[in-house]
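Appendix B, example 12.
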Amino acid sequence: MATNELPTIEKYRSILGDIPRAEYIINKVTETFGKYLTSYMDGNGADTYLIDILYLYFIKRVPDYFWTIPASSSGKYHPFFDNVEGGLVNHTCMNCEVASELFRLKMFEDIATHELEVIIALIIHDSFKNGYGDDFNYTIFAHPSIAADEFCDTLNWYLKQTIKGNKTLTSGKETELRESVEFISGLVQTHMGQWGRVKPSTSIQNFVHLCDYIASRKFFDIYKSVGKQ
C-alpha cells in the first residue's frame, strides 16, 4: 500500500465474508472520515494498523443505522442540522472538526501527541448510540461502553485472522496496537463527561468530552440562521 493511501476492499478480501457490503462500508468510511485519517497512513507503521481496526470495526460491528439516524432521538439536544436523517454522521464529523481546530492551540500540544487516537475515538464515540439494533429509536445510556467493548473485540478478531500473517505486524507493533485500542476505548467510554456512567479522569479524556460538548451545542443554529440573512 502506498503512503497516504487509505484501505480498499483488496486489503481485507481474504478475511471478509460479505464482500459487496464490506466494500460499500469501506467506501462510506473513506468518503466520510478519510480526510481525518489520510495523513496517518505510513506504510507498515502502527498507525496504519490502527486505521485497519477502525475500518474493520465499521464493517464487522457498527449497526447500519449509524449512517442514517439523527444525532438526537428526541430533538432536544444537538443543533437542528444534526437532528435530521444522517445527523449522527454530521455530529461525528463536527467532533473531528472541533478537535482539528483545538489541536492547533499550544495549550493542547501534549494531547496532540495522541491526535490519531483522539480522532478515532471521536469517530466511533456514538457508533452504538441506539444500542445493537434498530429496534430502539432512542439513545442507549450504555452506548459509550458498548462501543468501547466492541472496538476492543474488533482488535481481538483482527489478530486471529490471516492478516496477522503479515510479518510487518511484529510483537512490538502488536503490543503498541493493543495499547492504542485500549486507550481509545477509555476515551470512548468517558466521552459523556459529567453525564456519563464512567467519568473522565485524565486531561485527554476531558478533551474528547469537550469536543463532543462543543459539537453538540444548539447555538450553532442561531449563528447559522444569522449567516443566511
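The CA atoms of residues 45 and 173 lie 8 Å apart. The mean pLDDT is 87.
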